[in-house]
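Usage

Read records sequentially. Each one opens with the input sequence:
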Amino acid sequence: MPSDDPSDAPTGSTPPNAAAPSPNGVQIRGGTVPTPDGVTARTLARHPRPLGGDPLKMVDRPLFSLSGMVINNAGGAKDQLAIKRKPPWLRAKVPGGPGYQRLKKIMDEHKLFTVCEEAGCPNMGECWARGVATIMILGDTCTRACGFCNVKTGRPMALDRDEPRRVAESLALMGLKHVVVTSVNRDELPDGGAGAWAETIIRSRESCPGMSIEVLIPDFEGNWGALQMVIDARPHIINHNLETVRRMYPAVRPSAKFDRSLELLRRVKEQGGVAKTGIMVGIGERDEEVLALMDDVQAKTRVTRAGGSTDSCDILTIGQYLQPTRNHLPLDRWVTPEQFATFREEGLRRGFKVVESGPLVRSSYHADEQADRLTGIERETHDAMTRLISSTAP
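and closes with the structure output:
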């Protein structure tokens, strides 16, 4: 009986279903797919007997070509996608000044990482000059490779058991009213780093009793016992960013699950915590998908309190996606300040208590800002944040 295994074919023969090279490209059902000179020949030379059969045998004629979008550095001159020029409303201050230098000195002396530096935050100059930063724990190497993120990816170093102590000591030196702590993903650890998270929160509370603590946590791969360790440490705000709309997850957050992140936020609300999430726009989503995300977050995180009242995710941040390098997901569009204002209005109307929406908004809202420096929308946001933080005080 004839075998269907291509490996049974005589040496040097072409499997019956294999795509044959032609002067114009690869012959497939429905037509010919153009290929650069030599590419098909090199591929067939390296893989003369594809174990999975011919991957092109069921491919129809492409509806459109992506050839012009492919980065190809194989030949002489480099062909790269250019990063789009920023619009006039996207301007950030250059890092510098005594406040910036003081904070950098403390970070260096205590061997701490900040997401401000690792992720290339556009607000770093302004925030550090005020003496405010987002501490990043569990090292500087992430076990995931999200398409938008500039944090280093790879195999992390061994867990630094002394880091929680150093973080707490450095925060005491800074004298902050509010701090944001985040981390890389550590999926290789059994608890995803939750134990270190809990110790960092507890030590920071002890060292800085007058400081409110906001944590920006990973999803712990759905390990709800690990999440409980963080909740039990009682930070004032628990933030977990959705980052983008549901449709974009395979490209933007391939190792994450949209519904899993919603469940994390729901569990925070279920235990009376202040829940916060954030997304980027301009990475390929549509405006109506952003509104649908708001509805999803409110519906899937809603819990019923004693007495029949309901509560859901409290805070939403929306900011412009900025392509870190040419190797990251390309920018799709610049979202206008007017559209950000619309997003804020829609978020508040849908039930969020605080919505920070603007081109340079990032997930770390600094509640240490003095109320007398805030006006209009900023003052409303500050007052709402103060009420939320006060509600979680011990």
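Summary fields computed downstream for this record:
- Residues 257 and 325 are 25 Å apart (CA to CA).
- DSSP finds twelve helices and 15 strands in the chain.
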